[in-house]
Design a protein that fits this description.
With 229 residues, this protein is of the alpha/beta class. Helices cover 32% and strands 31% of the residues. It contains six helices and 13 strands. The strands form two sheets. The chain has a nine-stranded mixed sheet. α2 packs across α3. The longest helix has 19 residues. The relative contact order is 0.09. The N terminus is likely disordered.
Length: 229
């Protein structure tokens, strides 16, 4: 009985000491992408602003859910996990959003890999295709499907430098080191159109005739209609 009582006392004492331990300045870890669109200083500032200063705060008074919500509300951050280690260190694991295209119209911003808005960063500029033409921030689905296809395809990712959408939601592509414009039309049968583009490009690259065309029209089924320069 004495031993059991001693164990209960020690456990309770340790629990009280742990709750009374103050939290040290945050340790911030970025997961995945090495290029930082948001800095350690910005994350620290978000943590401090939303907990009225996290340094020397008692562990039991720290609202970790509130801190996570504050971080996840930042448009640069995809997900955040906040926790306190046994020694009182506040930790924040941050996963940034991944931009796949950059809108360059009357407003400039990224579209991320989930089709959501992502602001530009003063710390780093992603090398992604430009999007121009008629683009609405609250209606990105059409342009996102094309940007996602470009991002996930090695050939397109290497060669597409611009995606243009007109007011009829027709899509045009501009390729690196090519003078012609690729007209995709609508995004229906997009994969098939992309395959036709690859066949055309490979054939004409081999024959050194890519510079002979001004428009490559892929909007017709099973056809590649070319306009010569």
């Amino acid at each position: 009985m004495f031993l059991l009582g001693l164990l209960v006392f020690l456990f309770g004492f340790a629990s009280i000491r742990n709750k009374a331990r103050t939290v040290t300045p945050p340790n911030i870890k970025f997961i995945g992408e090495n290029n930082l669109f948001i800095t350690n200083q910005t994350v620290s500032k978000l943590l401090i602003q939303n907990q009225h200063g996290v340094k020397n705060v008692l562990k039991e008074t720290l609202d970790l859910n509130e801190l996570e919500r504050a971080l996840n509300s930042n448009p640069m951050i995809k997900s955040a996990e906040v926790f306190v280690s046994v020694n009182g260190t506040l930790n924040a694991d941050i996963e940034q959003k991944t931009p796949i295209a950059r809108v360059h119209t009357n407003a400039s911003y990224y579209i991320d890999d989930e089709g959501a808005y992502m602001p530009l960063s003063v710390n780093y500029s992603a090398r992604v295709p430009l999007i121009s033409g008629y683009v609405e921030k609250n209606n990105l689905n059409n342009i996102y499907k094309v940007a996602k296809t470009v991002h996930e395809d090695d050939f397109l990712k290497k060669n597409v430098i611009e995606i243009y959408q007109n007011n009829k939601k027709e899509i045009f592509l501009k390729l690196r080191r090519c003078d012609f414009v690729v007209k995709l039309g609508t995004i229906e049968l997009l994969d098939k159109k992309i395959n036709n583009l690859k066949v055309f490009y490979k054939k004409n690259l081999k024959e050194h005739t890519l510079s002979s065309y001004s428009v490559i029209n892929l909007q017709f089924d099973n056809q590649v209609v070319c306009t010569k320069t």
